[in-house]
Amino acid sequence: MNLALRLIPPLSSNLLSLISPFFISLHQIIPFSTHSLQLQDSPIITSICNCLRKRENWETLTQKFQSFHFTTPIIQEILLHLKEPKDAKNALNFFHWSAKNCKIQHGVFIYCIIIHILAKSKLVKHANALVESVLKKEENVFVVLDSLIGSYKLVDSCPFVFDLFVQCCGKLRMIDNVLDVCKLLDENGFMLSVISYNTLLHVVEKSDKSCMVWGLYEYMIEKRVYPNEMTTRIMISGLCKEGRLGRFLDVVEKCDGKRSRPGVVVNTCLIYGMIEEGRIEDGLRLMKRMLQKNMIVDTISCSLIVLAKVRMRDLESAWGVYDEMIRRGFEGNAVVYDSFIGAYCEEMRVDEAIKLMDEMECLNMKPFGETFDHLIKVCSEVGRLEESLKLCDKMIGNGLLPSCLAFNKLVAKLSENGSAKCADKLLTTLMDKGFVPDQNIYAYLIAGYVNVGDVEGALKLYYEMQYRSIAPSTCIFDSLIIALCQCGRLKEADEFLSLMVGQSLTPNILVYKKLIASHLERGDEARAHQLYRRTFRD
């Protein structure tokens, strides 16, 4: 994108001749004839500027200049003659008059010149109206921004004009490229105000692109535009919308031992998220700046450094930071322990992870739900189901519920081991506490009941799914049809096959084989042949 200064070069004098002295008189009422003229300090430009300064009405202007051909370069030159604040209203008057009477549509660059003049003169209402107008006319914000930057020095404008521009973009919901707009302005030496950032943050947070709000907030702090109370309110609203406010209130309280300012919660969330995304160096650099501005507290920053080291898989260094943290008088906290437990679980170091959980209990730390989830998953994966069940009970006792992912692991292993009934009872307990099961949990349980020959238990779960409006998957139908065939309930098996096909699900080839074999065994060759033909059709 070319951001060079957009100067329309003056027309050379050999192409333009001076008009007759008869028409040079500044007070001449006879309309000007259409002659070519030199732009710089031309009598016609001086004349029209003087008429505008004398507040002559549009009718008089039209009478005097109706036969003169106003080109875009001439209009630009007249506006530049009126660029000082004392002439701003005259410039606006000429802009509107020329648009109406000269049969010329102003281009983006002319719009930008008058916007600069009005912004420099603090005629905010008029400037806003024209920014909105040009943005609606030219929907590509970068075309307008390019012209604003290009005409900036031409008008001796002020940075405030870019705040107006950005705020109008927000008002018009033109936010798709808002971060790129901020970066482009920064590259050209223009820093937006916190009010402009707040406008953008508010609009983005209320839109269906609310995920962009954190990138914008991060960029704002990176450029040393520090948040105020309004910024914090917007970001807290964003956390509520994402359903993460409770989580980070808990993180901050566990790190610092007490409730912190809302701004600290927001900033902790930002750095935590950057570390989780793997942008560790960027996150720690930004956190250092926050510490200098008292935007985050020491106890939280130490915990986040430990978290960063753990994410880098440098556990030895992470323990070194933690030990230094303790030597400096800070206490260990659940955030630090959770990060270590999670890392040990990923490396299948189950005993070390459980040992840390026991330490947390001894120190009266309340673990996060995620801490339990880590342990439930890994204990299930390695077959330590009794410990998984105990952790589940302990979690419920702490008023927490496992994630679907963690509980799925446990249910899958219990069902494989013939303990589907135990898993089913645990599911009932969790659902009474507010747990919402997914399709996979039912699939594991139904397969578990089928494996031990309990068809009624499997059917009961199927009808429970129907009641809860959870759509059965292909594997659920497959399990039920095979189980019904095994106990000779072919009519019901055929009914489930019809249901399955009616829901555009494709049965496994083993299902067809089992149905065909069962019908042949029953002596129903016609049905068996029908199913055989369908097998090749499907």
Distance between the termini: 55 Å
Beta-strand level of the residues, as a percent range? Answer: under 5%
Largest sheet: none
Percent helix range: 55-70%
**Helix-strand string:** HHHHHHHHHHHHHHHHHHHHHHHHHHHHH
Low-confidence stretches: 1-38
The mean pLDDT is: 88
Shape type: elongated
How is the topology of this model organized?
Blueprint: H1 43-53, H2 58-65, H3 72-81, H4 88-101, H5 108-120, H6 124-137, H7 141-150, H8 160-171, H9 178-187, H10 194-206, H11 213-222, H12 229-242, H13 245-256, H14 262-276, H15 280-292, H16 298-311, H17 315-327, H18 334-346, H19 350-362, H20 369-381, H21 385-397, H22 404-416, H23 420-432, H24 439-451, H25 455-467, H26 474-486, H27 490-502, H28 509-522, H29 525-537
Please characterize this protein's 3D structure.
By secondary structure, the chain is mostly helical. Among the domains are: 1-105, no CATH class; 107-243. The chain has 29 helices and no strands. It is elongated, with a radius of gyration of 36 Å. PPR repeats lie at residues 298-332, 333-367, 368-402, 438-472, 473-507.
